Fold each of these.
Amino acid sequence: MQRLSDRTAGFTDSVIRRMTRISDEYGAVNLSQGFPDFDPPQAILDRLAEVARQGPHQYSITWGAQNFREALAEKQSRLMGRNIDPNAEIVVTCGGTEAMMAAMMTVVNPGDKVIVFSPFYENYGADAILSGAQPVYVPLVPPEYGFDPDVLEAAFQQRPKALILCNPSNPCGKVFTRAELQIIADLAEKYDAYVITDEVYEHIVYEPYEHIYFASLPRMFERTLSTSSLSKTYSITGWRLGYVIAPPNIIDGTRKVHDFLTVGAAAPLQEAVVPGLRFGEEYYRNLQQTYTQKRALFLRGLRDIGLPHTEPQGAYYVMVDVSAFGYQSDLAFCEDLARRVGVGAVPGSSFFHEPENRYIRLHFAKREETLNEALNRLEHIYRKLRA
Ligand code: GLN
């Protein structure tokens, strides 16, 4: 028989999602794949129950249901400081994952270069291969995760088609400052590149840090494909609702990619989440407070156990330095952690382009009981895992 496509040979399955399966296998507290173990807001669930009876149960318009796009445009216009046209500047996708893939397919020709900051959310590697892009990595250097503007400019000198910007950043928790965003904006303009953002943690930012939408910088809307998702904001990761926002000429292309990839996001779920999109400021303030408390609890716990870790400025991930345990492979470490300590984590190497082996990623988007249970188990880590 003929060989299957070469396309999939260049990457493995997702290590993040594999770690969820490994955690489940060992009955570990799963702090690997980032998703909450608490319920979405009641108003959304109540609407879902109504929608189950009333519909819609058939396709929505391929680029998203009208009332979903209108509610989203209203919310994002407020946040991004410009009028987003619900009828020309939005495509609703199956999660942030499809949004990023559709954005890449809209912009990139096979062989084009794309700048990716490293560490990066692991999907971007596979997205690059699937769209034929060649990643050019620019390090975000631990422990501060800053970048060197000269290194970034050298990457732009390779004439990339686009730069991928995850802000707030998964996995390192960096929230880019206005000055950093302006450096990126100036280079994108100077070298005529697009910017594809991933802003799924836009509402999970810790004081005093502040999320600034890249597309809100002067002249940047024209060259930015802003992608995001409702997963983290409304605790509905299984609903797979995401979107791309961009100017009409770009959205025309994204609509086509999206239409033939998936036809559309689930119509009943788009309908059910509309009350969420219409929540006022208070909801987002509460969300931020909730995560601020979880962050405090979890970081305090890690400190008490004596595990060196990052202090995220945004998102809900912590990079823990496990070099003291003397493992050769962080994947082997994570397997032992799940099996012998009972906590699921993601090996840091799946986020770094550089040969990095000293970090694991844990997340704290969990109920307090769950976080306390994980911390109780982690108390035994030095006894159980020291090589
Ligand atoms: N963003 C989440 C993480 O990094 C997972 C998202 C996903 O698996 N689609 O863990």
Note: The mean pLDDT is 96.
Amino acid sequence: MVNLSKYIVVTGGVVSSIGKGITSASIGRILRSYGVNVTAIKIDPYLNWDSGTLNPYQHGEVYVTDDGMECDLDLGHYERFLDTELSGKANITTGKVYSSVIEKERKGEYLGSCVQIIPHITEEIKIMIRDVAKKTKAEVVMVEVGGTVGDIESQPFIEAVRQLKNEEGHENCMFVHVTYVPYLKAAKEFKTKPTQHSTKELRGLGINPDMIVCRSELLLDDNLKEKIAHFCDVPKNAVINTPDAHSIYEVPLTMYSENVGNIVLDRLGMEKPNKADLYEWSQIVEDLKIESPKVKIGVVGKYIELEDAYISIREALKHAGAANKVKVEIDWIKADNDFNIDSLSKYDGLLIPGGFGERGISGKIESVKYAINNKIPIFGICLGLHAMSIAIAQLNGHPEANSTEFDEDCSCPVIDMMEEQKKINNMGGTMRLGAYPCKVKEGTIAYEAYKDSQVSERHRHRYEVNNEYRDLLTDFGAVISGTSPDDFLVEMIELKDHPWFLGCQFHPEFKSRPNAPHPIFKSFIKAAKDNKQGKF
Ligand code: GLN
């Protein structure tokens, strides 16, 4: 078999949340800078089929791909770092693997054999990994195995990638193990024992890492690297240190300076097609360091205790800040308990993110009214657009206006469920999901931002602006600045006589990249900057 793709498998040890996703994405970014065609896969060993039904408090944001898969947030890091569009197939879960195996078993595809974890589940995992490689024709596929080595759930995946290496050949598959090296302040010492133990655990599962990436608070010195190399049986130059960074976008630069590009390309027997070009990336990192002027953005949301719940919004705001040469300071404001409308006066711009359920909705609607009355730039995304539409209808003489998401029997349902959605009553995957085209009306903020009359944006919702109530909105001065190409669905609304008011039914944050900030976010931050400078 001709090998088209090479694989870099990334595992994690010691503790979770040490940034395996960022590490894999950074290796991918470095390879991209050499001109290598890279894609990425995230393996999530949980039993859920996809991330759609996961509570954002537990798992952070649900990321949506163009093809409409509800995925782990790491896919967002991959898309942002690799500047590419991934398919939902890039997120492999235990749920998907087992569903597929059971479906095959029901069809009799295993010809009477007893279906087992080895070989059937591991075989299915390899099929899914190779399928991504084949479809993307990537030269290198980053495969991040979620969880921590030793977890029961991840064992079939670890076994599958072990087999993958044997089948693909040593030169076509390498293993990177990401660990945490704690610093004990009292002893003034780094401790390498957890790294030694987790590497031992990995080796016990038949995988010898080729590279150890050590996450730490501070820089590790040469002696420590030597010690880790010695105990973990990797060359000393393959012990890579990634101390805490000012921003996640610095990690590719740190890893590049640790010679990761050369080590990986050598290990995989790949020629260096070009010199690495990280110039644009380092410029972005510089722009992200800007400390002044500052603009203050209040995000009036619900899942504010866990910042990861709005990670793409945070990143998109940062990208837009760098593009406008300002530092964006974000305050996460809880729209329900203790919500104080007067606290909004200190913000240069407000953003109402997407969300589900009634909690906090009245705080969001009040925030929209406040922004209208005080002429503060305001940006509503999905549920944010719903809150804007309800607020406008209420201000236009219909205090009873609401969404049927919150009051099924509402007598003025400005937001309602689409007929097709009503027929679906399962929870998982029943929304309008993924990329849909949007027609942009000339002479609007949206058109000025996109400079295009047709765009494509990602969706994740069940409810829509109710067409029967369009006039109630436009009578108040609302402008429908984006619709589906057949004009049937409202995609964006704006408000005349307001410096910057835009709500969109889609989630533009998923398409913002550090090197290509999303046009609407960029326009919003420019408006917030103008507001701060008293231009309105
Ligand atoms: N809950 C709303 C709906 O389902 C909005 C969803 C969202 O903000 N992503 O339509």
Note: The chain is about 35% helix and 20% strand.
